[in-house]
Amino acid sequence: xxxxxxxxxxxxxxxxxxxxxxxxxxxxxxxxxxxxxxxxxxxxxxxxxxxxxxxxxxxxxxxxxxxxxxxxxxxxxxxxxxxxxxxxxxxxxxxxxxxxxxxxxxxxxxxxxxxxxxxxxxxxxxxxxxxxxxxxxxxxxxxxxxxxxxxxxxxxxxxxxxxxxxxxxxxxxxxxxxxxxxxxxxxxxxxxxxxxxxxxxxxxx
Amino acid sequence: xxxxxxxxxxxxxxxxxxxxxxxxxxxxxxxxxxxxxxxxxxxxxxxxxxxxxxxxxxxxxxxxxxxxxxxxxxxxxxxxxxxxxxxxxxxxxxxxxxxxxxxxxxxxxxxxxxxxxxxxxxxxxxxxxxxxxxxxxxxxxxxxxxxxxxxxxxxxxxxxxxxxxxxxxxxxxxxxxxxxxxxxxxxxxxxxxxxxxxxxxxxxxxxxxxxxxxxxxxxxxxxxxxxxxxxxxxxxxxxxxxxxxxxxxxxx
Lengths: 205, 252
Hints:
The complex is a heterodimer of chains A (205) and B (252).
Chain A: H1 9-12, H2 28-39, E1 42-46, E2 52-56, H3 58-64, E3 67-72, H4 79-91, E4 96-101, E5 112-116, H5 119-128, E6 134-137, E7 144-148, E8 152-157, H6 159-165, H7 173-183, H8 193-196
Antiparallel strand pairs in A: 1-2, 3-8, 4-5, 4-6, 6-7, 7-8
Chain B: H1 9-16, H2 19-22, H3 29-43, E1 52-56, E2 59-61, E3 64-66, E4 69-73, H4 101-112, H5 149-155, E5 160-161, E6 172-174, H6 178-188, E7 191-199, E8 202-207, E9 212-217, E10 227-236, E11 239-247
Parallel strand pairs in B: 6-11
Antiparallel strand pairs in B: 1-4, 2-3, 5-6, 7-8, 8-9, 9-10, 10-11
């Protein structure tokens, strides 16, 4: 695990050492401010078993005029797969992104990492946060990617950005169905209805 | 114009569970199995040609009833015929409503492609249908006692492999005992150092041989919060590759 200096070492822990070379985003206070930027995009929902999770807030998606597209989280470990995301962000002048775990309760105050906008580091961020819910976004919050454990990556932003960030065949309802099938062939969209349902209005068809 | 039906592999697999597909002597079996078979052919053409397939419901053409059928779109036609779209065939306006088998194929091909060091989803495995590829070739791991403790769990007679449920092509297995069973298995592994809590239901352990063990719970509605134990193998340079997922359903 990474063991970078922080007052709450568990909150900076990562899966493996994939981002051990990256730095956290400033002082504790600066990180708090950046964390709040992240959380204003999210809402908390609670599963029937009582566990609370995060997802993009419909209010945020609606206010920003964003759309969403689902992809498999485990693909985010591959530099080839996230190259489009890194390029689309770089084209918009984003030289650095911010990444953090977005879990609830005692795990809410996770470290914010500075992630250079290149495929290698972006893929390393997603790999290092795979067991948990996480968020990658630029400081101006012009788009964001929210990951659901090792299952889904939810790309959110203006439609033009999403179409640049993902291959054409990974956009649309058929790609969402394929993603669920890829995560587990035994499951369908109905099995994830409580999570995916609120995104229905914003999904690219 | 007939109402188009969007069908994917999950739909076809669901269809295969119907008595019409498997019940010997069922009056609709020949037609139904043929429909499913053709559907798979449409999704995964053997020659990998650049095409789409759509399921066309029955419709009337010049007063005559045209039976429902699968329609393959010729390579390069992009779903239309010189600007004229035949009934049931993909037109730009129809696309969201129609199965886009070629797009799916491209997606699977993309997802199948992994970095050469094997990280991400277990390494490159060209060809084969999703969910049915053989398990990746494994590196040998040995503890101080010469045993691979994870292998012991994998080869335990109580372990059942899920043959068609590779989560992103990571082999999955079920084990008995629910939460207690998972705890027992974890205690059988050689963990070093303290556990690292990562979230409300995610805890990580480092094994003596450098692998990582992550305890989580499945998040989809059907799982009932099923506990899981996931093993990942180090690839060097701080990166890991998922190797096994053990599931502990309460029903076992």
